[in-house]
Amino acid sequence: MNLILYGNPATKKNSMQIYKNKKTGQSFLSQSVRYKEYAKDCGRQITGKYKKEIDYPINLKCVYYRKTKHRVDLTNLLAATCDILADYGVIKDDNCNIVVGHDGSKVLYDKNNPRVEIEIKEVDGYEF
């Protein structure tokens, strides 16, 4: 299965923000507005034909095309993408029994058309 999610890929882990609960005064961490908007936008692009709740071993290849050439952590991008795919029903979970590899994943530059191109392939004969 191939899927393209348009928008400048955002990481989840490096964009935490500290907020204060107005009722209790307690501080808490939450995702940044930028990541939340990116995840929501991806969710709108994931239509019913992609919502398969995949529960068998797969290789998840993600080729990220970012708007800028700033350094970014590929591992954090992959974690964010896995969470988005799980949250919107493409994969059942992002644990190591389902997402067994990210072979071929990389980060490239495309100023005019930022996106992530996702290729999901079943891995035959995988045992954990």
UniProtKB/TrEMBL annotation:
SUPFAM superfamilies given in the database record: Holliday junction resolvase RusA (SSF103084)
GO terms for biological process, alphabetical: DNA recombination; DNA repair
Gene3D superfamilies per UniProt: Holliday junction resolvase RusA (3.30.1330.70)
Pfam families: RusA
InterPro entries for the chain: Endonuclease_RusA-like, RusA-like_sf
A GO term, aspect molecular function: magnesium ion binding
Protein's name in the database: Endodeoxyribonuclease RusA
